[in-house]
């Protein structure tokens, strides 16, 4: 059983620690098992690829590497970093909301 993660795919996040501090991007994937997230255009690494039948040329490709979930923070609609809470919405379902601006997050 994995712990509950407050960041979802599609969220806009800001990196708050590490070498990519200050960068913002959209979450492409959440790796709950490893407590890591894959953020678009953040932590881009260079990977050397050997030639294969699918890629006969081989070469160097750039791709995003996952960063720890504690190093990112969700941004609300105003563009501010915020903590995320959960509460019952109008329809009785749980919705996520910004603790700073009190607006719901999609």
Descriptive overview:
There is one protein chain. The protein has no helices and 10 strands. The relative contact order is 0.20. It has a domain at 12-76: SH3 type barrels, CATH 2.30.30.30. It has strands spanning 12-15, 24-31, 36-39, 44-49, 59-64, 67-68, 72-74, 84-88, 94-98, 104-105. The strands form 3 sheets. Strands 6-3-2-1-7 form a 5-stranded antiparallel β-sheet, with no helix packed on it. A 3-stranded antiparallel β-sheet has the order 8-9-10, with no helix packed on it. It is mostly beta strands. 0% of the residues lie in helices and 42% in strands.
Which descriptors would you attach to this protein?
106 residues, mainly beta, SH3 type barrels, five-stranded antiparallel beta sheet, three-stranded antiparallel beta sheet, 0% helix, 42% strand
In short:
It is built from no helices and 10 strands. The chain is mainly β and 106 residues long. It has a domain at 12-76: SH3 type barrels, CATH 2.30.30.
- The counted number of beta strands is 10
CATH-scheme architecture of the domain at 12-76: Roll
- The succession of helices and strands, N to C, reads EEEEEEEEEE
Number of helices: 0
CATH topology name of the domain at 12-76, in short, is SH3 type barrels
Major sheet details: 5 strands, antiparallel
CATH C-level class of the domain at 12-76: Mainly Beta
Share of β-strand residues = 35-45%
State the shape: elongated
Strand order of the largest sheet: 6-3-2-1-7
The overall pLDDT, averaged over residues, is: 95
Helix content: under 10%
């Amino acid at each position: 059983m994995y712990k509950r993660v407050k960041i979802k795919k599609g969220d806009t996040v800001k990196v708050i620690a590490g070498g990519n501090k200050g960068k913002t991007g959209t979450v492409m994937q959440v790796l709950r098992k490893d407590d890591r997230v894959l953020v678009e255009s953040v932590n881009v690494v260079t990977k050397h690829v050997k030639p294969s039948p699918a890629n006969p040329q081989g070469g160097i490709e750039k791709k995003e590497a996952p960063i720890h979930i504690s190093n990112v923070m969700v941004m609300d609609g105003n563009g501010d970093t915020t903590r995320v809470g959960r509460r019952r919405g109008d329809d009785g379902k749980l919705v996520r909301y910004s603790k700073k601006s009190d607006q719901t997050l999609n």
